[in-house]
Each structure stands twice: as structure tokens, then as C-alpha cells.
Amino acid sequence: MITLTAGFFLDLLIGDPQNLLHPIRYIGKLIIFLEDKFKPYMVSKRIEFFLGILLWVITVFSSLLITLIILILLSKLHIAISIFVEIILCYYILAIKDLRDETKKVLDSLLEKDLRKSRKNLSMIVGRDTKNLDEESILKAAVETVAENISDGIIAPMLFIAVGGAPLGIAYKAANTLDSMVGYKSEKYLFLGKFSAIADDILNFIPSRISSLLMVLSSFLLRYNYKNSLKIYFRDRKKHLSPNAAQTESVAAGALNIRLGGPNYYHGNLVEKPYIGDNLKTIGVSDLLKTFKLMYVTAFLGLLLSLAIIYILN
Questions:
Q1: C-alpha angle 224-226-227 in degrees, rounded to nearest 5
Q2: SS3 of 241, please?
Q3: Residue 143: helix, strand or coil by DSSP?
């Protein structure tokens, strides 16, 4: 309870540390290293798929075991050292301030009337093509990113930490990193990353739904349209290629009375996606600011829930 709470507030205040000691960066390097080693053996689609499974197993379980061994060894030196390191790991795992800061760069450049800069900033946090987006489309993409990452970057990691401490939290982040690096449907990663994409969907199935319910409660506390958030959630929560992304996006769309989703270009190709929510108004700057508030309140509710889980399990 101490390590998660301290890590939560460190992340809230300081944000993602840009230094060489960040474990997620080493996980990314491990993925690149293994992918490079596997390349000579990718002689068929079936072998490539099984190598993708091996890539996932090695990356996730080595992340889990290394973290666990380090904490056990440090606890033998002194329990305070182990607690301190686990606090830092929890801090690394969460991404509250970083999510807000990276998205705010998009907002700031919009307020400066610099569409080109805003599109560039947006391209750093989304997978879609951004070079031709207008202001409303940029804001919509930013709202969608924050809404989706409330689960992936905040609630899900806390729930995994609550169940298995920092080691399980790091393992979750390893799986999440695999999905972001090799899990998308491109010609290069269609088979190598298929298992990583499936595993990420499974791991986020429950957290995304818990996140959605917490967001509905946050909408009520913030006096947003929580009744509409429930309505749109039950109606549109399955309107996405991912079984999880629309869970949180639908709540945000309903709470803010806006419409998200719809067709977008990815790598030059038009991808038809269903709309989420009702087109009751034009998405504006205020909607992104409200989404930030929704994120913060949901994060605090997620912390309380995670602490309750830790208390029950112990």
C-alpha cells in the first residue's frame, strides 16, 4: 500500500523520468534485440507466429523474474531499500502526468494557432496519420488518446500492482510495450506480433471495464453528463476494432456529449471505424480540459480501489 501510494504521487507530481534507468526503455531494447535474433528463422507465417509467442514469453517473464529477484535480494540487505526501490518502480510503471503533459503539448500548439506543430505533437502519441487533420479532428484524437490510456496507462497498471506488486506491474508494462511495438497489423508484424496483440487484449479485458465504471463515477462527481455516459457506454462500448478501447472512449463521449471514433487514415490507408457517441456539438478545447479532469478523478478512484484490493488480499 505504501509503495503504490508513494509511486502514484511521485508520478502525479514529477511525471515520466527521462533517464537511462527507466526499466521500460530496457524492455524496449530487449524486444528489439530478440526481434533481430529471430529474423533469420522467420521462414514461414507459422514459424513467425510461434516466434512471436516466444518473444512475448521471454520478454514478459524475464521482466517479472528480474524485478522479483532484485526486490528479494534488496530485502535481504534491508527491507527499507527494497521498499524504496519498489516505490521507484511503481512510479516508473504509472503514466498519469506524462499522459497529460504529452497531450497538453497538442493543446498548447492549438492555442498558439500553430496547426502544423499541433499535428506533429499529436503524431507522437497516436498511430493515425495527422498531417491533414483540422482543429476539431486533432482535439478528437487527443480526447480519444487520454480516454483510452486512462485504462492502459493508469488503472490497469495499478490493478496489476495491487495483485502482484511491482513485479507484476512491470510484467504488465512489458506486455503493453510489446503490443505497442509489434502488436499492430502491418505487413511486418502481422504474424510476429499477433500473439502480443491478443495477449494485450486479454490482459486489459477486465481493467478496461473497471476503468469505464470508475469513469462513470468520476463523471457523476464532476457533474458531467453521467447519465449519458452510461447510455453511450452500454450502446457503443463494443464499437471498436479492439475489444477494450471503446469501453473508456464511450464513457468519455457520453459524459462530454461529443462524438468520437469514425474513419481515419493509418499509414496512408483509410480505416473505417464506427462512431462512438452522438454528434451533439463540435468538440472544443474545453472538452479536452474536461477529459484531463476526468482522468485525474478516475486515477484517484483507481488508487482507492487498488488499495482496497491490497488490503483484502493481505
A1: 135
A2: coil
A3: helix
Does this model's pTM top 0.90? yes
For residues 224 and 294, the answer to whether their CB atoms sit within 8 Å is yes
What CA–CA distance (Å, rounded) separates 106 from 67?
35
Task: Measure the CA–CA gap between 63 and 22, rounded to whole angstroms.
Answer: 13
**CA atoms within 13 A of residue 210's CA, in its CB half-sphere:** 22
- Three cell numbers at 212? 469505464
Alpha helices in 39-94 (DSSP H): 45-77, 79-93
User: Across the strands, what pairs with 266?
Assistant: 269
Least confident piece of the model among 13-27, 80-94, 101-115, 169-183: 13-27
What confidence score (pLDDT) does residue 167 get?
A: 97
Whether the CB-CB separation of 175 and 157 falls below 8 Å is answered with no
Give DSSP secondary structure letters for 203-235: HTHHHHHHHHHHHHHHHHHTTS-HHHHHHHHHH
DSSP labels, 151-183: IIIIIHHHHHHHHHHHHHHHHHHHHHHHHHHH-
Say which residue the cell 473497471 belongs to. 210
Residue-wise burial string across 159-181, b where 16 or more C-beta atoms lie within 10 A, e elsewhere: bbbbebbbbbbbbbbbbbbbbeb
Looking at residue 19, what is its pLDDT?
A: 67
